[in-house]
């Protein structure tokens, strides 16, 4: 186990160097010692970066659920695997031990088999954050079906597109889902989607809200009666290391969503190893990741990573603001959470509220706090570090992507000193490189460039479902021989990485490369500003100029706009330089955001450029109505 858990900075450097010098040996040792295999591999890795082909642990046989569940039964069968915290705080939490998880997943696996699902079939899962969501995911993995979880906030159109792209045979959904004070009519949305999705033969429905729904004769079944009849033990299908585990859709900057495909062994080894180290997970710890399982973070760090390590993982059905802005802190206090992992957008929304909301809770169980999903701005970093981590818990800013399968750049708590807004150092096995526009590697520190990874790691996605050419073109063509993340990064004087945002967000103004994130950081420091987004637009003289969209806090709403704009520019000028001053500032009531909380810059860019109607696909936004408002009031 020595290479599995990193305990000091010195050890990190040692392990890191070894992992880069001899990656195959490094991963083989981790895979060898920490998992159950039906058969071990003939070869650790075979790959071709140009063709984007990766075979990890060639010819090994395994089942990931044996490792997530069965392996823990002997030693921790009676310990909690899952704690379910419902949307309504008055509804009792539910606890599932590893033994109970085994029974639940087995029943679900048997139901799926009985409904005709076979190894290799695609199963769509469109569920709220209820335990059945985790059971469904694991049941698919148990029988070798490929799960495709679609976030239950997506519209019927988005759902239909995803079902059709990978031709799912069966869908698991619920009558409805709770989200704060709202209920979402999931079954109705599924019914709408299925008009356009002929591949679905069977719909299994979880009863959650008890609301009235239509059941289509011959197609739809309530899940519970089927589970009640199903045996509580099950055989785990023997899977090849490279057999597909799941498809998860991620939006590209253009065109239809990309169905990223992850396979079995590499993903397992990578998520298990990174979970252990990035969260400093120790046996008995209670871990909570707030991400919905509809996103990669929920796949890798609510389900697979924690369960592979025998951890207790919290599944939270609700939202941070219901019934009050204290909900996160209340849940941490209630379940004595040790590791807490959330997104900057949630932190910023809570930091806007009165400090009492967090101050009145006992957060002393926390050991490590984490951030993921977008660059965490300086102000949010400090608020999270001071008020949640109490300056006592390392804050790990974890950089990764749906495509990387697991975290690739992050501090290791109690090992890597943290630095606000820096994801810090690469994890073992990851060799980041910065590339310039001429495709040359940028050597040395204090450099900014396109962030690539030089060598394959076990968690890397294997393809885009049905479109390997797009996989090659998107990730392996721009910088031949390397994986291109699409993000930009700055490497500081000691080699720490700071993610500057999507590369399309690097704006060249009068020949200067400006990342949008640092500018937004400064703007957000202004006392009246809640949030901001900066984009570039063409300018006759400078090449590009900067356009800032600024959302004000309640306290800023009544201020003189012209003065406010001046103050903001003064702040930028003071902190970054006059070169980064905004040519235009527009005060808006909100920013267009995807359902995972990412600002859709593509749209803001179009507005800044003067486009009035053609904004492309905006159906994946939580607030599509904002687009028209911003466009109408363009300055
Ligand atoms: C895990 C996840 C990936 C994109 C990625 C980057 C942004 C994620 C970040 C971060 C700065 C971090 N991103 N983590 N940017 N710092 N710690 O979010 O996957 O939904 O595929 O998004 O998110 O731009 O390229 P995914």
Automatic annotation (TrEMBL):
AMP-dependent synthetase/ligase domain span: 70-462
GO biological-process terms attached to the record: acetyl-CoA biosynthetic process from acetate
Group of enzyme by EC: ligase
Enzyme Commission number: 6.2.1.1
Residue intervals of the AMP-binding enzyme C-terminal domain: 519-598
Any one GO molecular function term: acetate-CoA ligase activity
Keywords (A to Z) from UniProt: Acetylation, ATP-binding, Ligase, Nucleotide-binding
CDD domains tied to this protein: ACS
Domain named Acetyl-coenzyme A synthetase N-terminal: residues: 12-68
PANTHER family hit by this protein: ACETYL-COENZYME A SYNTHETASE (PTHR24095), ACETYL-COENZYME A SYNTHETASE 1 (PTHR24095:SF14)
Entry similarity comment: Belongs to the ATP-dependent AMP-binding enzyme family.
Name by which UniProt lists this protein: Acetate--CoA ligase
Species name: Fermentimonas caenicola
């Amino acid at each position: 186990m020595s290479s599995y858990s990193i305990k000091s900075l010195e050890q990190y450097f040692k392990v890191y160097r070894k992992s880069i010098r001899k990656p195959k040996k490094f991963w083989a040792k981790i895979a060898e010692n920490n998992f159950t295999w039906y058969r071990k591999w003939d070869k650790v890795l075979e790959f071709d970066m140009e063709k984007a082909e990766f075979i990890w642990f060639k010819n090994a046989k395994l089942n990931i659920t044996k490792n997530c569940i069965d392996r823990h039964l002997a030693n921790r069968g009676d310990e909690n695997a899952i704690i379910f915290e419902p949307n309504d705080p008055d509804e009792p939490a539910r606890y599932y031990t590893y033994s109970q998880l085994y029974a639940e997943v087995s029943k679900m696996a048997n139901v799926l088999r009985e409904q005709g699902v076979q190894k290799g079939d695609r199963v769509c899962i469109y569920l709220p954050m209820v335990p059945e969501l985790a059971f469904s995911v694991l049941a698919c993995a148990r029988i070798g079906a490929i799960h495709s979880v679609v976030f239950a906030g997506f519209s019927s159109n988005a759902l239909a597109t995803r079902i059709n792209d990978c031709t799912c045979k069966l869908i698991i959904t619920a009558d409805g889902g709770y989200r704060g004070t709202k209920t979402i009519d999931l079954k109705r949305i599924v019914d709408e989607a299925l008009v356009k999705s002929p591949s679905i033969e069977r719909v299994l429905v979880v009863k959650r809200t008890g609301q009235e729904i239509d059941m289509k004769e011959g197609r739809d079944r309530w899940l519970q009666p089927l589970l009640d009849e199903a045996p509580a033990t099950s055989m785990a299908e023997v899977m090849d290391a490279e057999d597909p585990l799941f498809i998860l859709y991620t939006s590209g900057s253009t065109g239809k969503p990309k169905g990223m495909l992850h396979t079995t062994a590499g993903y397992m080894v990578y998520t298990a190893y990174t979970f252990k180290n990035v969260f400093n997970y120790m046996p008995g710890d209670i871990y909570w990741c707030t991400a919905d399982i509809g996103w990669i973070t929920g796949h890798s760090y609510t389900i697979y990573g924690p369960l592979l390590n025998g951890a207790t993982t919290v599944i939270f059905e609700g939202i941070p603001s219901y019934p009050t802005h204290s909900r996160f802190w209340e849940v941490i206090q209630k379940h004595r959470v040790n590791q807490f992992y959330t997104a900057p957008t949630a932190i910023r929304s809570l930091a806007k509220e009165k400090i009492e909301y967090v101050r009145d809770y006992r957060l002393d169980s926390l050991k490590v706090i984490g951030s993921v999903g977008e660059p965490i701005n300086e102000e949010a970093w400090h608020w999270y570090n001071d008020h949640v981590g109490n300056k006592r818990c390392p804050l790990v800013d974890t950089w990764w992507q749906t495509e990387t399968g697991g975290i690739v750049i992050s501090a290791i708590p109690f090992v890597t000193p943290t630095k606000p807004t820096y994801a810090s150092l690469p994890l073992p096995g990851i060799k980041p490189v910065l590339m310039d526009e001429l495709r040359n590697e940028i050597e040395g520190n204090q450099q900014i460039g396109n962030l690539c990874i030089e060598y394959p790691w076990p968690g890397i996605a294997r393809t885009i479902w049905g479109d390997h050419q797009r996989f090659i073109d998107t990730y392996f063509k721009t910088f031949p021989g390397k994986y291109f993340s699409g993000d930009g990064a700055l490497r500081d004087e000691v080699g720490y990485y700071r993610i500057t945002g999507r590369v399309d967000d690097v704006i060249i103004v009068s020949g200067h490369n400006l990342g949008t994130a640092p500018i937004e950081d400064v703007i957000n420091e202004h006392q009246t500003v809640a949030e901001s987004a900066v984009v570039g637009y063409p300018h006759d003289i400078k090449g590009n100029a900067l356009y800032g969209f600024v959302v004000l806090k309640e306290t800023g709403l009544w201020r003189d706009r012209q003065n406010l704009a001046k103050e903001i520019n003064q702040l930028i000028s003071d902190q970054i330089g006059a070169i980064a001053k905004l040519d235009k500032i527009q005060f808006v009531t909100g920013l267009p955001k995807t359902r995972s909380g990412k600002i859709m810059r593509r749209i803001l860019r179009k507005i800044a450029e003067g486009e009035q109607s053609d904004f492309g696909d905006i159906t994946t936004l939580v607030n599509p109505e904002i687009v028209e408002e911003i466009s109408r009031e363009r300055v």
